[in-house]
Amino acid sequence: QVQLVDTGGGLVQAGGSLRLSCAASLRTFSIYAMGWFRQAPGKEREFVAAINRSGDNAYYADSVKGRFTISRDNAKNTVYLQMNSLKPEDTAVYYCAAAIVVVTKPSGVNYWGQGTQVTVSS
What we know:
By secondary structure, this protein is mostly beta strands. Helix content is 0%, strand content 48%. The strands form 2 sheets. Strands 2, 4, 5, 6, 9, 10 and 11 form a 7-stranded mixed β-sheet that branches. A hairpin with a 6-residue loop joins β4 and β5.
């Protein structure tokens, strides 16, 4: 079975940092573009960041550009999201995602992680 396991969420004060990890059971991990989406209470799931199969191209939502960095280690079947300068509006459940190609809409995602809660206090 395909499984993406998100970890690394937690409670942090504004201005702080967190690093999320996503371990994938995909045997063909390297052929998938990977990414992160987030969903705050009462809001729709939104795109955060994505990275292509080889890891040489990254894409970010305007709201996180310059603060978040996505990376991947294909040898470890793991994707990371380094989150710096966190703001209260970053508070959400963060979901790891896998797709055949880079996508910026939830409808294009093939597989989802279970989500990890990130809470940023003022």
